[in-house]
Amino acid sequence: MLVLSRKEKESLLIGDNIEIIIQSIDKDSVKIAIVAPKDVKIMRKELVEQVTLENQQAIITLDPAALKSLLQLEKESSDE
Predict the structure, then answer these.
(1) For a pLDDT cut of 90, what percent of the chain falls above it?
(2) What's the domain count of the chain?
């Protein structure tokens, strides 16, 4: 893990095409701007974790036949 110190309006680069800019720093939050190509997915980690958990819970509540169908569809889409 790389740890960097940045001040407001300073930035850092990731590779050649992603820039992280520190917009403002308040008492308990930091606002950042991210400049990246449109094909780069940018999501808050807690949202990804929440969706993953909800998906896992939904699978648990499926009946076995529905689960088998879902797994078959997933297999077919990964084979393509």
Answers:
(1) 64
(2) 2
Q: Which two tokens stand for residue 18?
A: 């992603």
Q: Residue 55 is encoded by which pair of tokens?
A: 């998906």
Sign of CA dihedral 40, 43, 49, 52: negative
C-alpha span between 6 and 17 (Å, rounded): 19
Q: Which amino acid is at 72?
A: Q
Longest CA–CA separation in the chain, Å: 55
State the sign of the Cα–Cα–Cα–Cα dihedral 31, 29, 12, 7: positive
- With residue 52 as reference, give the H or E element that holds it: helix 45-61
Distance between CA 74 and CA 67 in Å, rounded?
Answer: 11
Q: Please state the φ and ψ torsions of residue 38, each to the nearest 5 degrees.
A: -60, -25
- pLDDT tens-digit series, residues 28-47: 999 999 999 999 999 999 99
Boundaries of domain holding 54: 45-79
